[in-house]
Design a protein that fits this description.
By secondary structure, this protein is of the alpha+beta class. It folds into 2 domains: 6-64 and 189-249, FAD/NAD(P)-binding domain (3-Layer(bba) Sandwich); 68-180. The protein contains 5 helices and 11 strands. The chain has helices at 38-45, 54-62, 140-157, 173-180, 224-241, and strands spanning 6-12, 15-21, 26-29, 32-34, 68-77, 87-91, 105-109, 123-132, 166-171, 211-213, 247-249. The strands form 3 sheets. It has a 5-stranded antiparallel sheet. The model has no long low-confidence stretch (mean pLDDT 93). Bound molecules: flavin-adenine dinucleotide.
Length: 250
């Protein structure tokens, strides 16, 4: 159901039985896919968190969450993007940003150079994105200062942008967390390290029969390609396990 949030996963005899939403609906099913943040999902949504074996629970505790981003979006006229690339890494500059950590890189993305439908005719969509620690606290004042500093660096590096960037909105880790439910606004789920990627990430199947995982918190890893692959692996696992998947709205 669109715009509804799962608030409880029902089980019986160690098997999944369905999902309850914040709208009060209960969907009975012998197959549920959790495609959102796994640690709070399993700990808070399962009607019986004690169903998780101790070993699995310890593994969940040991997994390390990835970093987040500060992102600022702009509309720019077509001519300001002339000669620019869709994805530019701005690095090695003297970035004295008003932050409690010391970034040396940010990204300037112009997705409408690849997909013109992502901006109105005659305009481009530009995004400045700065990696920052998950959960890094940025109030409106902090976001404003960060935005102004990034804009200054961007126009110094690319003078055609001067006076052409119409600011639309910006998001820090807190806003990303609110939108996605990912703790601290984690951009890739768990840290993308060799220890937490591929078969070392959480598996598609959980210890609870019928409860599967998909998305960046599970194998093979975060990022668009990894998430698409996990969706395919999850669908294949379900088709292999279940001769018949029942879904019954009540
Ligand atoms: C700023 C930023 C830049 C990025 N740049 C890149 C990039 O350039 N290249 C790349 O490959 N990757 C990039 N990533 C990472 C990539 O976007 C993610 O890894 C990927 O989108 C995660 O997809 P997902 O479906 O697993 O999770 P999400 O996109 O987080 O989706 C989870 C969904 O679950 C919903 N949800 C949460 N809780 C509940 C609930 N209880 N009930 C119902 N729904 C719920 C959320 O609302 C959300 O819609 C970036 C991420 C960010 C934040």
């Amino acid at each position: 159901m669109r715009r509804a949030r799962a608030v409880k996963i029902h089980t019986a005899m160690g098997e999944v039985r369905g999902v309850e939403t914040n709208k009060g609906d209960l969907f009975k099913s012998n197959c549920v896919v959790m495609a959102s943040s796994v640690r709070p999902g399993l700990r808070l949504l399962l009607d019986r968190a004690d169903l998780l074996p101790v070993r699995f629970s310890r593994r969940l505790d040991a997994m390390e969450t990835s970093g987040s981003y500060y992102i600022s979006y702009y509309s720019i006229p077509e001519d300001a993007a002339r000669g620019l690339h869709p994805n530019i890494e701005v690095t090695g500059m003297n970035m004295s940003l008003p932050l409690a950590f010391s970034p040396d890189t940010f990204y300037m993305l112009i997705p409408s150079l690849i997909d013109p439908s992502s901006a109105p005719p005659g305009r481009h969509c530009l995004c400045l994105s700065l990696p920052c620690p998950a959960g890094y606290a940025m109030d409106r004042h902090g976001r404003n200062s960060c935005r102004i500093s990034l804009e200054q660096i961007a126009v110094e590096k690319f003078p055609a942008l001067r006076g052409k960037m119409t600011h639309l909105f910006d998001l820090g880790p807190g806003q990303l967390e609110t939108i996605s439910g990912n703790p601290g606004g984690a951009a890739y789920g768990w840290v993308q390290s060799p220890e937490q990627s591929g078969i070392r990430r959480l598996g598609i199947k959980t210890p609870i029969t019928g409860l599967y995982l998909a998305g960046q918190w599970t194998m093979p890893g975060g990022g668009i390609a990894g998430v698409i692959t996990s969706g395919r692996l999850c669908a294949q696992a379900i088709l292999k396990d279940k001769a018949f998947v029942s879904v019954e709205p009540c």
